[in-house]
């Protein structure tokens, strides 16, 4: 007898950040799911509406990565500390100005967006992995990236799900190593701090 398949309706779509690769067919999906919530930070929602400006109190570092304008409008803005079902929203700006991670309070799993990548080896994603350099190339601000990586490490996640790469179990030691590697690498880069 085949295993039972549970089918759950999609009631909510949450973006970790506004990069093209993490949006997929959002407009088409929401057209099929008119009752679904669409959640994103107010900061990254501006990029989705076509406003690519930086705020005066933000590092005036050039934005990297691909952004597209979409027609869907968020049903709600999320911010640090919000709870969405079992997930707590953790602000982790760096890769984009309004990037967030999601921490599952049931089992301490961390959905890290692009705060880390696990493809081609675990890395703080501003730290270039030659076999998969795209998250690093898309990172907006390396110094903030490190701050966010440390903040997420302090959560002691039981499991790490990054936007690019496989899920990693018991990742804390590997995250600490990735942070140390990024600290060394960023210090060598002339534009460290940008
Ligand atoms: Zn990204």
Secondary structure: elements and pairs:
Layout (H helix, E strand, L loop, with lengths): L11 E3 L11 H7 L4 E5 H7 L27 E3 L4 E2 L2 E5 L8 E5 L4 E5 L2 E2 L5 E2 L9 H4 L4 H12 L5 E4 L5 E2 L2 H17 L6
Parallel strand pairs: 1-2, 2-3, 7-10
Antiparallel strand pairs: 4-5, 5-6, 6-7, 8-9, 10-11
Helix pairs in contact: 4-5
Bound molecules: zinc ion.
Zinc ion binds next to loops.
Report on the architecture of this protein.
The chain is α/β, with parallel strands linked by helices. The chain has a single domain, classed as Metallo-beta-lactamase, Chain A (4-Layer Sandwich), CATH 3.60.15. 24% of the residues lie in helices and 20% in strands. It contains five helices and eleven strands. The chain has helices at 26-32, 42-48, 134-137, 142-153, 172-188; strands at 12-14, 37-41, 76-78, 83-84, 87-91, 100-104, 109-113, 116-117, 123-124, 159-162, 168-169. It has a six-stranded mixed beta sheet, with no helix packed on it. A three-stranded parallel beta sheet has the order 1-2-3. Strands 8-9 form a two-stranded antiparallel sheet. The protein is globular, with a radius of gyration of 17 Å. The N and C termini lie far apart (57 Å). The mean pLDDT is 87.
Can you summarize this structure?
The chain is α/β, with parallel strands linked by helices and 194 residues long. The protein has 5 helices and 11 strands; from the N terminus they run E-H-E-H-E-E-E-E-E-E-E-H-H-E-E-H.
Beginning-to-end CA distance, first to last residue: 57 Å
Largest beta-sheet characterization: 6 strands, mixed
The gyration radius over C-alpha positions equals 17 Å
- What is the ordering of alpha helices and beta strands? EHEHEEEEEEEHHEEH
**SS-based class:** alpha/beta
Annotated CATH topology: Metallo-beta-lactamase, Chain A
Q: What's the CATH C level?
A: Alpha Beta
Helix content: 10-25%
- Small molecules bound in the structure, each named once: zinc ion
What portion of the residues fall into strands of 2 or more residues?
A: 15-25%
Task: Give the overall average pLDDT.
Answer: 87
Low-confidence stretches: none
- Please, how many domains? 1
Our count of helices gives 5
Q: What general form does the structure show?
A: globular
CATH architecture: 4-Layer Sandwich
Strand order of the largest sheet: 4-5-6-7-10-11
Tally of extended strands? 11
């Amino acid at each position: 007898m085949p295993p039972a398949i549970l089918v759950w309706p999609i009631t909510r779509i949450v973006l970790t950040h506004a990069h093209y690769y993490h949006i997929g067919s959002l407009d088409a999906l929401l057209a099929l799911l008119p009752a679904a919530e669409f959640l994103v930070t107010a900061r990254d929602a501006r990029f989705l509406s076509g406003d690519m400006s930086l705020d005066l109190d933000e590092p005036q570092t050039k934005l990297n990565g691909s952004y597209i304008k979409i027609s869907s409008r968020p049903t709600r803005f999320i911010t640090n500390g919000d709870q969405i079902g079992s997930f707590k929203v953790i602000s982790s700006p760096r890769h984009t100005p309004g990037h967030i991670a999601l921490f599952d309070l049931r089992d301490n799993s961390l959905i890290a967006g692009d705060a880390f990548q696990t493809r081609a080896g675990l890395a703080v994603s501003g730290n270039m992995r030659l076999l998969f350099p795209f998250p690093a190339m898309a990172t907006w601000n390396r110094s903030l990236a490190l701050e966010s990586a440390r903040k997420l490490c302090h959560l002691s996640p039981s499991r790490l799900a990054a936007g690019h790469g496989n899920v990693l179990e018991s990742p804390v030691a590997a995250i600490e190593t990735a942070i140390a590697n990024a600290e060394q690498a960023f210090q060598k880069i002339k534009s460290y701090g940008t």
